[in-house]
Design goal:
Blueprint lengths: L2 H14 L7 H13 L4 E5 L5 H13 L2 E6 L2 H13 L6 E5 L2 H4 L8 E6 L6 H8 L3 E10 L9 H10 L4 E6 L2 E7 L2
Parallel strand pairs: 1-2, 1-4, 2-3, 4-5
Antiparallel strand pairs: 5-7, 6-7
Helix pairs in contact: 2-3
């Protein structure tokens, strides 16, 4: 299988069907962070159709890593399962169908090197608080869409200021960026 062509087709399908996939620039950034951080175990909150999951798995495979991804939409989950199977990434990707607010507490503590939060923006604070115990010390969060949807995440920004949690916002593409938080 030509995985690059598959991803191009999946991206086009996402754009045509308003599926909230990450940008190509963001995919490159996330893969670079996986390599730089030596990430072996990654958690993704918000699978959509599996576009980002496949990109992340490509980098994780090079590191000998694995990933877990959670999504609440059954149609998205089913599409992601099929897409990940077609790319042969199903041996390193575990997909969980369910509400992340319920599923996160079931995961083992301090088991992830990186957590990518790309779920419902108004729930970012909840995703962050529930997944914080799951991240190893020295691991990092990457939170997507923090510029474009900052108004939907205002309570999260207030939480970070109140708790004095250091974070960096990086503009990755023309209209958006990510937040990076390292667990110290």
């Amino acid at each position: 299988m030509d995985i690059q062509q598959f991803l191009l087709d999946l991206r086009a399908h996402g754009l045509a069907n308003t599926i909230p996939n990450i940008s190509d620039e963001n995919a490159r950034f996330l893969k670079d962070m996986i390599h730089i951080g030596g990430v072996k175990n990654l958690l993704e909150i918000g699978t959509a159709n599996g576009y980002s999951t496949i990109h992340l798995c490509m980098a994780l495979r090079e590191n000998g890593g694995k990933m877990t991804s959670i999504d609440y939409s059954l149609p998205s989950y089913n599409e992601a399962v099929e897409n990940i199977k077609q790319t042969g990434m199903d041996d390193i990707a575990t997909l969980i169908f369910g509400n992340a607010l319920i599923e996160l507490p079931k995961l083992p503590k301090e088991s992830f090197d990186m957590i990518f939060i790309d779920g419902q923006k108004k729930r970012t604070i909840d995703f962050f608080e529930l997944s914080y115990p799951l991240l190893k010390s020295g691991g990092f969060f990457i939170i997507d869409d923090v510029i474009k949807f900052s108004e939907k995440m205002s309570s999260f920004y207030e939480f970070l200021a109140e708790k004095k949690i250091a974070h960096s916002i990086l503009q990755i593409d023309a209209d958006d960026g990510v937040m990076l938080i390292v667990k110290r």
